[in-house]
Design goal:
Bound molecules: ligand MGD, iron/sulfur cluster, molybdenum atom
Structural class: alpha/beta
Number of helices: 26
Helix content: 25-40%
Strand order of the largest sheet: 5-4-15-14-13-6-7
CATH class of the largest domain: Alpha Beta
Largest sheet: 7 strands, mixed
Low-confidence stretches: 1-42
Number of domains: 3
Mean pLDDT: 94
Distance between the termini: 45 Å
Shape: globular
């Protein structure tokens, strides 16, 4: 038994080890059959001694912080920030530091698995990679022949999906979605594009470290742990920047604020319109900037007139004096006033218009392209690999046939799901799911399961036995990020740089990296010509050489940095706006032409059933989504979530902190048990929980049944008519005491 495997097993407490073995027992038998067990563990090399450091970048979330991993006597020991990396600046967030736990995760899938039961029953046969990929290729060919390759769709999240997407495009697939659009930042990117002609990007182009006034609407920095932003937030707070936070919950960020606005959930657009009413009415905006760069300001200003602070008060619960005081505070520091664009912006279904109001408020401050506002990012130029041309699709994407969502810039995950259920505009018969736990990341789990039941093939590439893996026909186990190369990252950021992900340590069993899976699948599909390279190092070397960079230096340092161009208009960064008017669109002709409000208009959110609480959710500093609850280091820090309930409401219901309850939503859906956190830090009309807990997959014995799942209670969602985003903050719950 290798060192790795011993550590792996030692990390698994005995109670759950039995269940863990359920999914792995068969795999042990298959390992012999595949005949690569010993090879993959030791590679025939003598035991390693001493310390070895390998630079790479983190994958515990999508921020991609540069890191340095240390191996001690052949065992993965620790991971720290890479000081050369402009994103991490030498420090990782707690999740990144806990990243070594991904390698030791006791719930890892160890070998390819083929379903031997009804879908969703999670009974498997361990098979070799060849068997698994032959099975997949045969079904993919059949779908291609019967329905066309467009009927094979994919859900792919993160940089690890690059090569699988290439294989799928070579096969002819056109529908490739990620939950990071219609469930996350889609409304924001659409709104900023409509207004400024460009996205906010990821990492966001927010110059938080230089902001004099920072306005956070929901964005719960400090719980939302995107590293650079949190470091810059700490810098801004330390410098005495004025912080304004609007959140129904007194977040960590709120505790640093000069003004905390406990806004009624779903009414942010009313607050934003009232702020702009004051700023325009009192002539507090950046006139020179608006005159130089703005389009349609007069119509915009006219639309704002009814939205006075007095009007907004009953909607938002924020009194007119506070609205005026905060509006004046923002104006005082402009252009270094940054109204944060948010990231997870799918809240209520009118989200693009809400975030458009955020964009417009920033435009009034003159903060786009200015120090302390939004900088102009740049990246290093690394030419694409000279692949043979991809086939021309014969059918368009699903979204372009359904005549909805004219401003969706990417595939919409729920549109693919709908097409799978209805067979319209054309049938969808296969899904490949890479690194996204669709059962927990899409709203309405029943619809996801109904769609899965229509499929001829569901392939899931994952590292652990996640909920979506539990529904698969074939599960392909991937090596975790510390065990593999990936596509390199020439990041679009404040400082241009290239980051490399490279293996630190071998995989503990039969797991393979995504690039290997993608290339091998392409070969099985007869598409080997689309992979003219043999090994990913050849691929990376070719791209770097074409750009004139040194691969050796990148391997050694993990990071290559480039020349810094100006990042603010005032320093010579180009002030160009890719909108129809080539200006900042206060009035959007694109929206008017498509039949939408050219200037945002407010509609109040629909109330819930009497006596219920609106269900809100967010992040905890030590977990990422639904992917880290089995990581032994991170689950040690937080093993279950709790439900935040206003203290007075708790007294009224006779509940104390620590009591277990179940949440029942408006459609009768009942959650797992979850502990109450009775607190003054939340409004009495809503409750709050951290997303990602309450796992139900048998493949995750170390997280199974711990805490409750927000996703399980999100049976309703409201779709953004502009871009297809799914607003998920539209569910309501009551609490039932657990005996
Ligand atoms: N630790 C950690 N950090 C992460 C992640 C993670 O998984 N773990 N995920 C990353 C990703 S991909 C994303 S998208 C971001 C998400 O993080 P954010 O973009 O910050 O997400 P929000 O949904 O804005 O955050 C939820 C906050 O909004 C408040 N809120 C809820 N409803 C309303 C409302 O109607 N109005 C207002 N004003 N506030 C409201 C909640 O109380 C909570 O404080 O986090 C990123 N950072
Ligand atoms: N209810 C609810 N839904 C949400 C959100 C929410 O807060 N609440 N947040 C939304 C947001 S902002 C986002 S960005 C999305 C995120 O949505 P997802 O990206 O789907 O997030 P996870 O649920 O963590 O699922 C990630 C999956 O990838 C697997 N994985 C982890 N590492 C690897 C790897 O190296 N290789 C492979 N192949 N697999 C890996 C994990 O085991 C897990 O099954 O969810 C959205 N949906
Ligand atoms: S923010 Fe944290 S989890 Fe995300 S990449 Fe950076 S260190 Fe890793
Ligand atoms: Mo997200």
């Amino acid at each position: 038994m290798s060192t790795d495997q011993r550590v792996l097993n030692a990390a698994a407490p005995s109670v759950s080890r039995r269940r863990f073995l359920k999914i792995t027992a068969a795999s042990v038998a298959a390992l012999g059959a595949a005949g690569t067990f010993a090879e993959s563990l030791s590679n025939g090399k003598p035991a390693e001694k001493g310390l070895r450091q390998v630079p790479t970048f983190c994958d515990l979330c999508f921020w991609k912080c540069g890191a340095i991993a240390t191996v001690r006597d052949g065992k993965l020991w620790k991971i720290e920030g890479n000081p050369l990396d402009p994103l991490s600046r030498g420090r990782l967030c707690p999740r990144g530091t806990g990243g070594v736990g991904a390698h030791f995760d006791p719930d890892r899938v160890r070998t390819p698995l083929l379903r031997v039961s009804e879908r969703g029953q999670e009974k498997w046969k361990a098979v070799s990679w060849d068997e698994a990929l032959d099975f997949i290729a045969a079904r993919m060919r059949k779908i291609q022949a019967t329905y066309g390759p467009e009927s094979f769709a994919a859900f792919v999240h993160g940089i690890g999906g690059t090569f699988l997407k290439h294989t799928l495009k070579a096969y002819g697939a056109v529908n490739i979605a990620a939950p990071s659009f219609a469930q996350c930042r889609g409304p924001r990117d659409t709104a900023f594009r409509l207004t400024f002609g460009d996205d906010v990007g990821s990492p966001e182009r927010t110059d938080i470290e230089n902001a004099q006034c920072l306005v956070l609407i929901g964005s719960h920095l400090g719980e939302n742990m995107h590293n650079t932003q949190v470091q810059e937030f700490a810098t801004a707070v330390g410098r005495g920047a004025s912080i304004i936070v609007a959140d129904p919950r007194f977040s960590v960020a709120a505790s640093k604020a000069k003004f905390y606005l406990p806004i009624k959930a779903g009414t942010d657009l009313a607050l934003l319109l009232a702020w702009m009413n004051v700023i325009v009415g009192e002539n507090l905006y950046d006139k020179a900037y608006v005159e130089k760069y703005g389009f349609g300001f007069e119509q915009f200003a006219a639309e704002l007139r009814p939205y006075t602070p007095e009007w907004a008060y009953p909607e938002t619960g924020i009194d007119p004096d506070t609205i005026r005081a905060t509006a004046r505070e923002m104006a005082r520091y402009r252009p270094a006033t940054l109204i944060h664009p948010g990231r997870h912006s799918n809240w209520y279904g009118d989200d693009t218009q809400r975030v458009r109001a955020v964009a417009l408020l920033n435009a009034l401050m003159g903060s786009w392209g200015r120090k302390g506002g939004f900088y102009i990012p740049s990246s290093m130029d690394v030419p694409a690999y000279p692949y043979p041309p991809l086939p021309k699709p014969s059918k368009p994407k699903i979204e372009s046939l359904i005549n909805k969502f004219p401003f969706a810039g990417e595939n919409i995950s729920t549109a693919i799901r709908d097409a799978t259920i209805t067979g319209k505009p054309y049938p969808v018969k296969g899904w490949l799911v890479y690194a996204t736990n669709l059962i927990n990341s899409l709203p309405n789990q029943d619809e996801t399961i109904r769609a899965i039941q229509q499929l001829d093939l569901l392939v899931v590439v994952d590292v652990i036995g996640s909920e979506i893996a539990g529904w698969a026909d074939v599960v392909l186990p991937e090596s975790v990020y510390l065990e593999r190369h990936d596509e390199m990252n020439p990041e679009l950021f404040k400082h241009p740089f290239i980051a490399l992900r490279q293996p630190v340590i071998p995989s503990p069993a039969h797991q393979k990296p995504n690039w290997w899976i993608a290339k091998r699948l392409a070969e099985k599909l007869g598409l080997g010509a689309y992979y003219p390279w043999n090994d990913i190092e050849d691929y990376l070397a070719a791209r770097l050489k074409a750009g004139g960079y040194s691969f050796d230096e990148l391997k050694r340092q993990g990071i290559l940095t480039g020349k810094q161009p100006p990042i603010y208009f005032d320093d010579g960064a180009p002030a160009t706006f890719d909108t129809p008017s080539k200006k900042i669109e206060f009035y959007s002709t694109q929206l008017a032409q498509a039949g939408f409000d050219p200037v945002p208009k407010y509609t109040p959110p629909e109330p819930g059933p009497p006596g219920s609480y609106r269900l809100l959710f967010g992040r905890a500093p030590v977990h990422s989504f639904s992917r880290t609850q089995t990581n032994p280091l991170l689950s040690d820090l937080m093993s279950e979530n709790s439900v935040w309930l206003n203290a007075a409401e708790a007294r009224r219901l006779g509940l104390n902190s620590g009591d277990y309850v179940r949440l029942r939503n408006q459609d009768g859906r009942l959650s797992n048990r979850i502990r109450v956190k009775a607190t003054e830090r939340i409004r009495p009309d809503c409750v709050y929980m951290v997303h990602g807990f309450g796992h139900t997959a048998k493949g995750l014995p170390h997280a199974f049944g711990k805490g409750a799942s927000d996703a399980g209670l999100i049976t309703r969602y409201k779709t953004d008519p502009l871009m297809g985003g799914t607003g998920m903050n539209v569910n309501f719950v009551t609490l039932e005491r657990e005996a």
